[in-house]
Amino acid sequence: MFTGIVQAVGRIQRRDPRGEDMRLWIAAGDLDLTGVRLGDSIAVNGVCLTAVELTADAFAADVSVETLRLTSLGDLGEGDALNLELALTLQTPLGGHLVSGHVDGLGEVVSRRPAGRSEVWRFRAPEGLARYIAAKGSITVDGVSLTVNGVDGAEFEVNLVPHTLEVTRLGQLRPGSRVNLEVDIIARYLERLLTAGGTGGQGVTREFLEAHGFGRVPGSK
Fold this sequence. Notes:
Blueprint: E1 8-18, E2 21-27, E3 41-44, E4 47-54, E5 58-63, H1 65-70, E6 81-86, E7 105-115, E8 118-124, H2 127-130, E9 138-141, E10 144-152, E11 155-160, H3 162-167, E12 178-183, H4 185-195, H5 206-211
Antiparallel strand pairs: 1-2, 1-6, 2-5, 3-4, 3-6, 4-5, 7-8, 7-12, 8-11, 9-10, 9-12, 10-11
C-alpha cells in the first residue's frame, strides 16, 4: 500500500527487453534506498513494482507485457521522469489516501489553466471508471493523491498547487499526455457490496439492512 504522496522524481536509466516483458532500471533521484531490500514494493508513476536488483542510487523492476499495455510505463523511454514512493509502513503519515498501486486505467490530460498561483487541470477517464470518481473524493494520477474538484461525465478537474507541480512529474505533462489512474479503493468495495458481493447475491437493500440490525432501536426485537 501507498499514500499517493510522491517522495522523489526518478528517471528511466535503461530498458532491457525480456521477451515481451521489460526490465526497467530506474535512477532513484532523492529517494532513499537505504532500507529497501530485494522484493520490496516501490510505486512508479502509481504502478506497484517489485525491486529485483539494487544499487546505491538505482533499482530495477520487471514489468510484464500486461502492465506495459495497461499503463503509461509502455509510453516512456530512457531519461523520462517518474514519480516514486516507497511502500507504506505503520509509521508512515497518511498524508494522501490509501493507494494500492494497481492502476485501474489510462486517463488523458485535457487541459491546464492558471488559477492564481495554482493550476486547474482537467483529465478524461475511461468511461468504465467515471462512475467511481466523485467531487471532493480522492483519485491517484501517476501516483499522486489528488482531490477531485468537480466531475463532468468522464472528465474531472483537480487543483494543483505550485509545490505539487515542482516536486512531481505532473508539471512536465501537457494536453494529450496519458496518465495512470487509480480510483479510491473504497468506491470499488462499496460498489461490490451494493451490487451483490457478500450479501447473498441480493445487493444492499432496505430489507437486507433491517435484517442485519440497521435502524433497529437498541433493546427492541
